[in-house]
Design brief:
Length: 520
């Protein structure tokens, strides 16, 4: 058994941030979680063992205050919020393997074990501290953080505080961290975020304050070695990534180090500075990659709970269907830059890409096989140059998708390539005009070839789209009358070849008009 465990290959482990429960989730939270879900589905399809972790960050002043405002106990507040998150993940077809909450005993135990280890090895010390404290960012800030003499808006109210606290010797690990980032160029992605962290490391790091006096904040994990304090919420939250895969248990090796911490750029510093130095100090292996995407903006501002300018993904899922939301956030949200959210943009993608390009292709092709060949897929026959071109685009799309775009979490590029294939296939229909071939008895074999190639292309598209749009893929599979799509990697075999009887054709995306409700 032990030997088997040692030989077992490490599975693919992907994480999202654990979200604060001070308010309900919005499109930003949904986007990171959808991105992780897409990666998890892509890997599962390839037969990989996958662990997809998401969850909630339930301690800290913001949660305590949110509960106080509503007149409920913090844990009751967290339970209610957890329900909202779980409902949303279900509505968005997100299938995580674990949903961690930092108030769970399994997590508190690991946080305390890590703290104790760091304390025992001299990595923590207690000292008085006087400084500026941002309530909304829950962190001490320094003069270096001021921009043109003012505190940036996202720090909210900044107060002067004096108190004794526990500190982590983060500065001792600065040189190691800088070297590690330089030696591992794809560790922090994308490149602009990596450069941002390297620029921060050009200046001396302060040690990290990792405690809060219980007198000021009761809602946290007690320090195991000093009863007057609870753990700083970031130190607590980051540890979730090792709690869930079973830190201290034999199964930990099956998952850790994580293959990808997926986050947005707002929490780059805790993930690329606090967390790696904490792990280094505790003698735990580093994550393989930290990937930070950009923000959804509303006009010029970040979409955020505190600004109240949020988009509720449930509204869009109710109007356009879950898959349209999943498609939109994968197609439009950029990795290295921010993206402006507008309803027009959403509608344009829905109508042009889904209803028009993809929807029409699937509907036309399946309907024509019914009309001209009684619903049975004909034989492909000898390829013409036009066929060879379609096949080339299909092969290149498949190869790039598997070898580069998907493993690199470059969903915009993956979908752009997939839509180039959709466009090529629609053009193939127009160029070959099956409705004309059908009128010419001498062109029967050619019509067979065209229809068969279209069906094969649609089956391939179903396979490529499944991680992004699982229920659309299921609808396409039902119309093709195949139980599921095989993985489209180099072992790809068309599941709807000659002689296969298709299911009934019906539109997969009805066109939507601004302001109108559209049935999903
Ligand atoms: O920071 N655009 O939780 P949080 C894109 N609890 N993504 C966005 C976004 C936007 N406008 N707004 C939020 C916390 N997100 C901590 C994390 S992890 C150990 C602790 C997404 O509720 C994005 O993933 O503020 C961002 O990093 C995260 O929500 C922040 O969630």
């Amino acid at each position: 058994m032990l030997q088997l465990r040692l030989l077992m290959p490490k599975g693919f482990f992907i994480t999202t941030p654990i979200y604060y429960v001070n308010d309900r989730p919005h499109l930003g939270h949904a986007s990171t979680t959808i991105w992780a879900d897409v990666q998890a589905r892509f890997r599962r399809r390839r037969g990989e063992k996958v662990f997809f972790l998401t969850g909630l960050d339930e301690h800290g002043i913001k949660v305590q205050q949110a509960a106080q405002r509503r007149g409920v106990e913090p844990l009751a507040h967290c339970d209610e919020m957890a329900g909202h998150y779980c409902d949303l993940w279900k509505a968005l077809d997100i299938r995580c393997d674990d949903f961690i909450r930092t108030t769970e005993p399994r997590h508190m135990k690991v946080v305390q074990a890590v703290l104790q280890k760091l304390c025992d090895t001299g990595q923590l010390y207690r000292k008085p501290y006087r400084g500026w404290y941002s309530k909304s960012a829950e962190q001490f800030v320094t003069e270096k953080d001021r921009v043109e003499g003012k505190w940036p808006a996202h720090f909210g109210e900044v107060l002067e505080l004096e108190e004794e606290n526990w500190f982590f010797r983060m500065s001792d690990h600065q040189e190691w961290l800088r070297r590690y980032i330089q030696e591992n160029p794809r560790w922090i992605r994308p490149e602009n975020r990596r450069n941002q962290i390297l620029a921060i490391l050009d200046r001396p790091l302060d040690d990290l304050c990792i405690s809060r006096p219980k007198a000021r904040l009761a809602w946290g994990i007690p320090l195991p070695f000093d009863p007057e304090y609870v753990t700083y919420v970031w130190f607590d939250a980051l540890v979730n990534y090792i709690t869930a895969p079973g830190f201290g248990e034999a199964r930990f090796k099956e998952w850790w180090p994580t293959d990808c911490h997926l986050i947005a750029k707002d929490i780059l510093v805790p993930h690329c500075i606090y967390w790696p130095t904490m792990l280094h100090a505790a003698g735990i292996e580093q994550p393989k990659c930290i990937l930070a995407h950009g923000w959804w903006l509303m006009g010029r501002d970040k979409m955020s709970k505190s600004l109240g300018n949020i988009v509720d993904p449930r509204d869009y899922a109710a109007r356009f269907g879950t898959d349209a939301v999943r498609y939109f956030v994968c197609r439009e949200l950029l990795l290295a830059d921010d993206t402006d959210f507008t309803e027009e943009r959403f509608l344009a993608r829905f109508n042009a890409d889904l209803a028009n390009d993809l929807g029409n292709l699937v509907n036309r092709a399946i309907s024509m096989v019914h009309r001209y060949r009684g619903g049975v897929v004909p034989a492909t026959g000898e390829p013409t140059p036009a066929d060879a071109d379609l096949a080339k685009v299909a092969r290149e799309t498949r190869d790039d998708y598997h070898a580069r775009h998907m493993p690199n979490v470059e969903y915009g590029k993956a979908l752009e390539a997939v839509w180039a294939l959709v466009t090529r296939a629609n053009r193939y229909v127009d160029e070959n005009a099956p409705w004309k071939l059908a009128k010419d008895p001498a062109a029967a074999a050619r019509l067979d070839g065209v229809l068969a190639r279209l069906i094969e292309t649609i089956a391939l598209l179903g396979s490529l789209l499944e991680p992004f749009m699982p229920s659309t893929a299921a609808k396409i599979a039902a119309q093709l009358n195949v139980p599921e799509f095989p993985c489209s990697d180099e072992r790809w075999v068309n599941p709807a070849g000659a002689g296969h009887a298709l299911g009934r054709a019906s539109p997969i995306f009805p066109r939507a008009v601004a302001g109108e409700k559209s049935a999903p």
